[in-house]
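Tokenised fold entry reproduced for absentees:

. . .
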Amino acid sequence: MTEPDRLRAAFVRRPHGLAGVLVVELLGGDADRLQPGLRVHTAVGPLAVSWARASGADVLCKLEGVDDRTAAGRLSGGYLEVDRAQARALPPDEYFHFQLVGLTVVDDSGRAVGELVDVEALPQHDIFVVRAPDGEETLVPAVRDSVRSIDVARGTMVVARHQVEEVRDAG
């Protein structure tokens, strides 16, 4: 899979107050990734981050040029994206979603399961959507108990056989 030019850094939930502050949900990392001066791409064009700080599970963020609730509202439901070159470095065993989609998935006995076709981001953990050749989809939690290994260079993911069997038996 080719690398995208931009990566989604945060989802804009809603305006906060009257001065153009946004409530955003980070898509990885912490509030420090939204450093003052960072250029983000929005629905209204590129803007610079003025400041950001954690607020519970979300982050409050102020962008230059977004000075009132109406302007902030225009960004609600959209994303703050960064140029690929500005993306944060990931620690070992963490991946961007675009790196995972398209991987061939096998269980730990070597049996083919299918292709990873989507990654659903949930608050607890991501869910990998794996499509078998017959079109049947299996949902695999992105947790160590379910995912044995990921090898992006080889294009493979190994999942626990019991995980696949449990999902199919429940269906």
In short: The CA atoms of residues 108 and 160 lie 6 Å apart.
